[in-house]
Amino acid sequence: MDDYKYLTIVEWTKEYIASNKLMPNDRFLTEKELCTIHNVSRQTVRQALMKLERDNVLYRVRGSGTFVKSVTPPVSRTGMNIGVISTYFSDYIFPHIVTGIESVLNDASCPMQLAITHNRVADETQALTSMLSNGVRGLIIEPSKSALPNPNIDLYREIQRSNIPVVFFNAKYPWSDMPCVALDDDAAGKMVADYIYECGHKRVAGIFLIDDIQGHKRYSGFINSSIAHGVKDAEKNVIWYSSTEKEDPFTGIKDRMLELLKRVTAVVCYNDMIAVRLMKFCRENGISIPDDISVTGIDDSSYAPICEVPLTTVKHPHRKLGEAAANMLLRQLESNGAPQESIIFQPELVIRESVKVISDDTADKHKNA
């Protein structure tokens, strides 16, 4: 992901300057040193240095090296320094979203401060506090553990009292009246479940994330589809996992998973990442996809078309979502905080090879196995 790592280097550089108490005109690290530290290509380092020059953090002198230009948070000619807080950055759909945000802010000459929370509330607290102290004019935020009570409510109230506009992306806290740019997660969950049922499956499982509101909405879509197709007990085939288990959500529940997979013919997964993990689990346990189990994801990530069985999924707007969030924030700034309507992108089904069309006879045989 060298194409996106340059943003991480940009934020690291600002922290490095502050922590090492570098002053204006002090010599900064060389391109070679940055390549070694971050294990990236020289092209990625140069992309980061170009942005740092645009943001008035560094300047370069041909034949002499790179030097610190400013030790204060960079402010554009319009003074609109924007904070962006994302749960993740280095993989999945997040680089595309952040790049969409950055492209709009760059065009508007608005420097961007990026912070990553790893979906941890304490890291969100630190990011918000740091950005407020750096004088951001607006915030674009992906909430952390959005389905759980959040101790940062008072911090968000302070942000509102300070007339700092906020736009959430991917999800928003249930208690917040701030606008959000997101995929219609309820519709996405329903769309993949509808497709599964329309392919002849009658016994369908679901795997959903419990601590983010997106997981709840995708679950809701799955259940609504099940009821619409006459399946009243779908919830008994649902497994919940937390974001702390995302690397391997099936650890410790192997027997439960195998029992579940014996009594269903298809699984709706919260996202592509979990679908890929499920495929790996099935392969390790001699379960064939889609012959034994059909699998769907959501997000149409880079994993979906290249995993061992190309994945049927729902397209996430990725970069367009980031662009929309940034444009919404700029409109709020230009209109002195005038309310903005949330933007909800409608899902689009992407059909690949991970779902098998089955007959009534096949479903009955599986049921009686």
Helix content: 40-55%
CATH topology of the domain at 185-316 and 350-368: Rossmann fold
Main sheet characteristics: 6 strands, parallel
- Report the sheet-strand fraction: 15-25%
Termini Cα gap? 44 Å
Order of helices and strands: HHHEEEHEHEHEEHEHEHEHEEHEEH
**Rg, nearest Å:** 23 Å
Count helical runs. 12
Inertia-based shape: globular
Q: What's the rounded overall pLDDT mean?
A: 90
The strand count comes to 14
Q: Say which CATH homologous superfamily of the domain at 185-316 and 350-368 is assigned.
A: Response regulator
Task: Summarize the SSE layout with pairings.
Blueprint: H1 2-19, H2 31-38, H3 42-54, E1 58-61, E2 65-68, E3 82-86, H4 94-107, E4 112-116, H5 121-133, E5 138-141, H6 153-161, E6 166-169, E7 180-183, H7 185-198, E8 204-209, H8 213-228, E9 238-241, H9 254-263, E10 266-269, H10 272-284, E11 294-296, E12 313-315, H11 319-334, E13 343-345, E14 348-350, H12 360-368
Parallel strand pairs: 3-4, 3-5, 5-6, 6-7, 7-13, 8-9, 8-10, 10-11
Antiparallel strand pairs: 1-2, 12-14
Helix pairs in contact: 1-3, 2-3, 4-11, 7-8
Structural overview:
With 369 residues, the chain is of the alpha/beta class. It has twelve helices and 14 strands. It has helices at 2-19, 31-38, 42-54, 94-107, 121-133, 153-161, 185-198, 213-228, 254-263, 272-284, 319-334, 360-368, and strands spanning 58-61, 65-68, 82-86, 112-116, 138-141, 166-169, 180-183, 204-209, 238-241, 266-269, 294-296, 313-315, 343-345, 348-350. The strands form four sheets. It has a six-stranded parallel beta sheet with strand order 4-3-5-6-7-13, sandwiched between helices. Strands 9-8-10-11 form a four-stranded parallel beta sheet, sandwiched between helices. A two-stranded antiparallel sheet has the order 1-2. The radius of gyration is 23 Å and the shape is globular. Mean pLDDT is 90; it is low at 73-77 and 365-369.
